[in-house]
Amino acid sequence: MAKAAHRYKGRKITGRFLAIPHDVLTCPAFTELSAQAVKLLLDIASQDRGNNNGDFSVAWKVMKARGWRSEATLARAKREVIDKGFLYETRKGRLPNTCSLYAVTWYPLDMCDKFDVGALAGFNAKGYMPKLVVMNTKPVRDWTLPNGGIDPK
């Protein structure tokens, strides 16, 4: 036991960190993202404090401080990340000074009074995962008919 503790000495993370599940990084939708979309996703997720998913801002003033140089590139990356299902808009921006708010879909949504009405109902957790289509290959038997409705051949 003492030898095991010795191996991990000095490896404790003391500051904040960003936890991204492997199913996010290995899903096909993530590999199809552009470099700008991946950077935006990391910039948005870095706003996480553990209790504020759904309260992330992609406002130009916030993103400019993170190194973004073009509003058009930011808008394209934001649309791509939303379309792929990694980001969900919890509040639409309004004039004069209300910014849109977003949530990443690999964390559960943390409720906040800033959300639009119905934001929780539309939230699709793990929206980036491919949808599985289950096809029923067995014939459905109707037991009101003789032999369950299936012809014995």
Can you give a write-up of this model?
The protein has 153 residues and is mainly alpha-helical. Helices cover 32% and strands 7% of the residues. The protein is built from 7 helices and 3 strands. The chain has helices at residues 2-7, 22-25, 28-31, 35-45, 60-65, 71-84, 119-122, and strands at 56-57, 87-91, 101-104. It has a 3-stranded antiparallel β-sheet with strand order 1-3-2. Helix 4 packs across helix 6. The longest helix has 14 residues, at 71-84. The chain is extended and about 75 Å long. It starts with a helix and ends in a 31-residue tail after the last helix.
Report a brief summary of the structure.
The chain is mainly alpha-helical and 153 residues long.
Strand residue content = 5-15%
Compressed to H and E, one letter per element, the order equals HHHHEHHEEH
Q: Tell me the major beta sheet.
A: 3 strands, antiparallel
- Rg over C-alpha atoms, rounded to the nearest angstrom: 23 Å
Mean pLDDT: 85
Give start-end ranges of low-pLDDT stretches: none
- What is the count of DSSP helices, taking H or I runs of 4+ residues? 7
State the shape. Answer: extended
- Helix content class: 25-40%
Strand order of the largest sheet: 1-3-2
What structural class results from the helix and strand content?
mainly alpha
Distance between the termini: 68 Å
Based on DSSP secondary structure assignment, what is the total number of beta strands?
Answer: 3
